[in-house]
Amino acid sequence: MKVGVYRENGQGETRVSATPDSVARLRKLGLEVCVEKGAGALAGYPDKDYADAGATLTDAQTVSSADFIFAVNLPDTETLAGIAGGSMLVVFLAMCEDDGTLKQLADQKVDVLALERIPRISRAQSMDILSSQANIGGYRAVLEATTHYKRFFPLMMTSAGSAKPAQVIVLGAGVAGLQAIATARRLGAQVRAYDVRPEVKEQIESLGAKFIELDIGEEGSGEGGYAKELSEDARKKQQQLLSDELKKADVIISTAAIPCRPAPQLIPAETVEGMREGSVIIDMAAATGGNCALTQPGQVVSEHGVEIVGYTNYPGMVPADASSFFARNLVNLAALLVSSEEGTLVRPDYMEDEITEAALVVYQGEVRF
Ligand SMILES: NC(=O)c1ccc[n+]([C@@H]2O[C@H](COP(=O)([O-])OP(=O)(O)OC[C@H]3O[C@@H](n4cnc5c(N)ncnc54)[C@H](O)[C@@H]3O)[C@@H](O)[C@H]2O)c1
Prior knowledge:
This protein is of the alpha/beta class. The chain has helices at about 20-30, 45-50, 60-65, 75-80, 100-105, 130-150, 175-185, 200-205, 230-245, 270-275, 320-335, 355-360, and strands spanning about 1-5, 30-35, 55-60, 70, 90, 110-115, 155-160, 160-165, 165-170, 190-195, 210, 250-255, 280-285, 300-305, 305-310, 340, 345, 360-365, 365. It has two domains: about 1-115 and about 320-365, Rossmann fold (3-Layer(aba) Sandwich), CATH 3.40.50; about 135-315, Rossmann fold, CATH 3.40.50. The chain is globular.
């Protein structure tokens, strides 16, 4: 059986879904691998290294006829139309409602496995693309903050004068937020963090940050470890109580998200207006509407002297390691996608495994959203 790896054609994407190391691991599972030429170029993985690892370098059309097709993002319409029936597209789908694409793939008899739907259970931890990429994103977002903030992060005492440590607030303490806390702490900032799920207090404190406790009169914990959307009253109260804290921050890294819902708005325009000039907001929720009312997705804007950064692909700014983690997640998944019978690779019954059962959004001609 063959794995195909596309060169990503999405705007600004630098990552790739297989690396020379992951190709070697896929080969050890008994899989053939074909990689579109130039697929790893932007992540620092040249074609030669893929060939040395045992991949065949090829074109997109050949990739489209593989049994399993790996991609970071959903390919363009033309590429999707060329995928052969019987293939399985394994992709970070980032789709909450079918816009017709999945129906089309179902009609083509292409199966689709949405990586973000892999359940967050212990057995699937090694395949958890949401975590591997959010972790890198949280780290890179803090580095982005340091370049926009016109001062030091750490306390500096020099013969030329002293500088105070930056006051950083992290909003949302999921995977990205916790990594942002750890990174900002390593750089010497004083960090406080807030999350609507009170159970993260301990995790925040274990990283040496202070937990901002707010009484908003409602529990924010929802199903499966995620947050739930708050009532209108609680939302207003949250914004009000948070506003006083946020106005004291030099840097805000906001990561608050609810799956398949618009990002909660935690930083209204009035709060930005009350912040000190030269402060920085890194809004990691920019792609889903932003935690800040003034965020422009993909752009850096300056409002009331505050720089608001709305970049939407932080993992793509660390492309070698982001690709490496992504690719390793896929190797671990590949071990579930094939099994060996009498020395031949076969597809097991995907509906019998809770991981593939949950993640296959198109299977055997049916959209299963
Ligand atoms: N394999 C596993 O068991 C595993 C792996 C990774 C993560 N998880 C869990 O999954 C959950 C989600 O993690 P994630 O990083 O994907 O989260 P996420 O990206 O969906 O959200 C980021 C954070 O935003 C917070 N948030 C949402 N609304 C908010 C609001 N109004 N105000 C403040 N904060 C708000 C959430 O509580 C969350 O911590 C966590 O409980 C995490 O521990 C489990």
